Amino acid sequence: MEAAHLAGRILIGLVGAGIRTSLSPPLHEREADLQGLRYLYQVIDIDELGLPVGATGDLLVAARRLGFRGLNITHPCKQVALGHVDELSPDAAAIGAVNTVVWSGGVSIGYNTDWSGFTQSFERGLPGASLENVVLLGAGGAGAAVAHAVLWLGAERLTVVDADARRAAALVDALAARFGADRVGGGGRELTEACLGEADGLVNATPVGMTGHPGVPLPLGLLRPELWVADIVYRPLETELLLHARRLGCRTLGGGEMVVFQAAEAFRLFAGVAPDAERMLRHFRSLTTVDAGAGGA
């Protein structure tokens, strides 16, 4: 794989909103150092730049001209980026969202490593959890990747709930075409209470609960001890949703391992060498321990 670089360094960036505290830069740069690579990871925050999400395509063009090897794409730019790359990996095309862009031979290729990151995290963190009936909150870029992962893991029934019922319906249609209409359904938030009453598991794939978006994505009274609860938010690791679920006795899964595993796959795509994912997990834990000690994520 080619290694486009600036002054001998592999130049990588992260595009998104409210991402100044992201742990992606230290995760990638530490692994690169241990691999003997000169690797610089820059944060490109559209909020700080005063840019709308629609500027995502312009940022990709600018990054390409400046010699970036690739970009990670995060909330709320993942679906917008889809239309601004030359090629899509099969997974990114199926999911309808891009979280990793790599330039190779002058061609931009969009990938999605979120779905595999969630898959690995779920298999490690909730082994044996029932997938008979799962409710997913959020039909955006991250939600689409998680939906793909949950169905790939074998969910018999997935219900997608989003504040925008049309967005939920569009994701349901795409999933039905790939996995079968009998395995997926969904709509607006009014479905939440009825669906959760029969569910085995719940995944929050909305930004609610993350730093800058405090709160919970549903009424906490809807949770019950038999339900497993996963949250893809990792800043903070202990969201209000997870804390309440754990107090009830639910099995829970935070977003930390997902972010590490998706980062590890993105690193492989950027650098052309396999990272040590377990080492990256240890580094992530050390970074989050420092955050907790400092009084916040």
Would you write up a description of this structure?
The chain has 297 residues and is of the alpha/beta class. It has two domains: 5-113 and 257-294, Leucine Dehydrogenase, chain A, domain 1 (Rossmann fold), CATH 3.40.50.10860; 130-250, Rossmann fold. It contains twelve helices and 13 strands. Strands 1, 2, 3, 4, 5, 6 and 7 form a seven-stranded mixed β-sheet that branches. The chain is globular. It starts with a strand and ends with a helix. Mean pLDDT is 93; it is low at 1-7 and 292-297.
**Judging from the principal axes of the Cα atoms, what is the shape?**
globular
- Extract low-pLDDT stretches: 1-7, 292-297
CATH class designation of the largest domain? Alpha Beta
CATH superfamily of the largest domain: Leucine Dehydrogenase, chain A, domain 1
Q: In percent, how helical is the residue content?
A: 40-55%
Kindly, what is the distance between the CA atoms of the first and last residues, rounded to a whole number of angstroms? 35 Å
| CATH fold title of the largest domain | Rossmann fold
Number of helices: 12
Number of strands: 13
Secondary-structure element pattern, one letter each: EEHEHHEHEHEEHEHEHEHEEHEHH
Query: Taking Cα atoms only, what radius of gyration do you get, to the nearest Å?
Result: 19 Å
Overall average pLDDT? 93
CATH architecture of the largest domain: 3-Layer(aba) Sandwich
Structural class comes to alpha/beta
Domain Shikimate dehydrogenase substrate binding N-terminal: 14-101
Pathway: Metabolic intermediate biosynthesis; chorismate biosynthesis; chorismate from D-erythrose 4-phosphate and phosphoenolpyruvate: step 4/7
Catalytic activity: shikimate + NADP(+) = 3-dehydroshikimate + NADPH + H(+)
Subunit structure: Homodimer.
